[in-house]
Amino acid sequence: MAKLTSILDNDFYKFTMQYAVVKLFPKARARYAFINRGKHKFPPGFDHKLKEAIAEMAGLKLSKQEKVFFAAKCPYIDPTYFDFLEGYRYDPEEVHIVQEGEDLTVRIEGYWYRTILWEVPIMSLICELFYEFTEQERIDDDAVRQIVQDKMVKYDKLNITIADFGTRRRHSYAVHDLVIETLKANLSKTFIGTSNVHFAMKYQTTPIGTHAHEWFMFHAAKYGYKMANLLGLEHWSDVYRGDLGIALSDTYTTEVFFKQFDKKLTKLFDGVRHDSGDPVEFAQLTIDHYKSKGIDPRSKEIIFSDGLDYDKVETIVRFCEGKIGHSFGIGTDFTNDVGLPRMNIVLKMVEAKPEDSAWTPVIKLSDEPNKHTGEQDEITIAKKILNIND
């Protein structure tokens, strides 16, 4: 059955955010909840197997070899963090799982600096266990490799760079391993790294990522919606001092983000990440923003990461070419293209408790309204405060 074998089998931005949380918000608490967007029906007993897999995660720990690799790749992170991570252990008591019929509930609660690492591995376990439990047979290994090779032949011709962002909704660890092995064997310079730190180490490539929506969601709980983007980026730059300089733009819509992305931050950050809404419209907004600040857009970069496949990437490249730098993070189209329906699930922060404060609902206002997350009353309040009409 599905199980994790390395504490680094997680997305890079979970560790970079954890480091920032340890430094800035060590007493903050967080709650997360599983959202079954695809309305998948979980077979009887699924919850027990998931609990077993999560219980086994308590035995994971950072090895000396992993510590050396991670520290060497991240000279901008203090050595004290890697000592902390070496002593970190998953606590399964922070995870609460209930299954009623075919419906699965997963909730996580604890100190933010601890619970921040749960999201990605739990999602990957849910996916892998689901395919195992429902006895869906994927294509064979050779076919998986061939699909990746065929895609890279096309991507190579676009003269772009691509990273793997496919951990959370991968078919399985085995498929993910095949994909990275095949990408790394590609002779072009198209593949530049992976969001998965374990596979970055295994295949000696670069771990890639910065921060996620929860960073800004927590800032909204602590400082309010109007200050969330601004203070989120200020605090990020305080911790990383110019490293990891790609800013996520759509926690409270791109329009609101660019109003708060002032000239200082616009100059300081290397670029922005697109994760929802029309990518071409976003690219144009980004280009216009840089020009309005007197900055050549060609000196900056957009990382596109929203449900990409070749057709979407080609459209984006044709628009951005010669106008602004661009790179791509491709997820399930690499790690779950195995001849089966892909799962559509998320696991998001739903409440935060800043130090000396009460539990506060947190939300995300995507550039696609059907991807908003959180309580509807809170979404309505946030949209009113931020003057959002959709």
How is this structure best described in words?
The structure is a single chain. The protein is α/β, with parallel strands linked by helices and 390 residues long. It is 45% helix and 15% strand. The chain is built from 17 helices and 12 strands. It has helices at 12-24, 46-56, 64-73, 79-87, 112-115, 119-133, 141-156, 173-185, 197-202, 213-223, 225-240, 254-260, 263-268, 279-292, 310-320, 332-335, 376-385, and strands at residues 29-35, 95-100, 103-111, 162-164, 191-194, 206-207, 246-248, 271-274, 301-304, 325-330, 346-353, 360-361. A 7-stranded parallel β-sheet has the order 6-5-4-10-9-8-7. Helix 7 crosses helix 8. It is globular.
Describe the biggest sheet?
7 strands, parallel
For the termini, the CA-CA separation is 44 Å
Number of strands: 12
Q: Give the % helix.
A: 40-55%
Structural class: alpha/beta
| Mean pLDDT rating | 97
Strand order of the largest sheet: 6-5-4-10-9-8-7
Shape: globular
- Give the SSE order as H and E letters: HEHHHEEHHHEHEHEHHEHHEHEHEHEEH
Q: Specify the number of helices.
A: 17
Strand content: 5-15%
| Poorly predicted tracts of residues | none
Mind telling me the C-alpha Rg? 20 Å
